[in-house]
Amino acid sequence: MSEDTTIIKEVEINGKITDAEIRVIDENGQQLGIMSAVEANRIADEKNLDLVKISPTTNPPVCKIMDYGKFRFDAAKKEKDARKNQKVTELKEIWLSMTIDVHDLETKAKQSRKFIANGDKVRVSIRMKGRQQARPEIGVEVMNKFFTLVEDVAVIDKKPLTEGRNIFMILAPIKK
C-alpha cells in the first residue's frame, strides 16, 4: 500500500457509492441537489470526472464531482508538508553532581541553553552517592542554582523531584 492512501483510504468513489439518495456538489462547488447515485455517476461520467463521497455521515451523504487522482495527489502533498513542518521535541539529559563547581555548572547550563534553543526539553539529573542521600536538600539547592543560570530561556516543566537515589527536574523552552 502506498503512503498517499493513508489520508483517504476509506473514501467511496463512483460505482462503490451504494446510497439511494446523495447530495451532489459539482467540480466548481455548486450544489446540484439531492439525486440518486446512478444519476450522479452519469453526470460525473459525462464530465470525465469521478464521484467521490466526501461526507458519509450526513443524511443524505455528500458527494462531489472531481478528479479523484488529483484529489489523492493534493491530499498526500498536504500530509507530507504537514509532516515536514512538524517539530519533534526531544528530551535531552544533563547530569550534575551535588559537589559540582561553579564553572562546571555554567558549562552545563550553556549546553542546556543550546538544547532549549533547538526547542528540546532538558532533564536535569543528580545522582546522590553514599552519605549524600541523607541530605537531598543540597541537591535541590544545586538544581535551583542551575535554573537561575537558564531562567531567561527556560521554565520549570517539572519541579525537582527526589526518586530513590536520583533527583530530577525538567526544563522546557519559554513559549513565545
Compact description:
Helices cover 33% and strands 30% of the residues.
| Strands side by side in the biggest sheet | 2-1-4-3
CA-based shape: rod-shaped
The count of strands amounts to 8
Radius of gyration: 29 Å
Please indicate the count of domains.
2
Descriptive tags:
single chain; 176 residues; alpha/beta; Ubiquitin-like (UB roll); Translation Initiation Factor IF3; 2 domains; four-stranded mixed sheet; 4 helices; rod-shaped; disordered N terminus
Explain the overall architecture.
The protein has helices at residues 37-46, 68-84, 102-117, 136-150; strands spanning 21-25, 31-36, 50-55, 62-66, 91-96, 121-127, 154-163, 166-173. By secondary structure, it is α/β, with parallel strands linked by helices. It folds into two domains: 3-83, Ubiquitin-like (UB roll) (Roll), CATH 3.10.20; 91-173, Translation initiation factor 3 (IF-3), C-terminal domain (Translation Initiation Factor IF3), CATH 3.30.110.10. Helix 3 (102-117) crosses helix 4.
Topology diagram in text:
Elements: E1 21-25, E2 31-36, H1 37-46, E3 50-55, E4 62-66, H2 68-84, E5 91-96, H3 102-117, E6 121-127, H4 136-150, E7 154-163, E8 166-173
Parallel strand pairs: 1-4, 5-6
Antiparallel strand pairs: 1-2, 3-4, 6-8, 7-8
Helix pairs in contact: 3-4
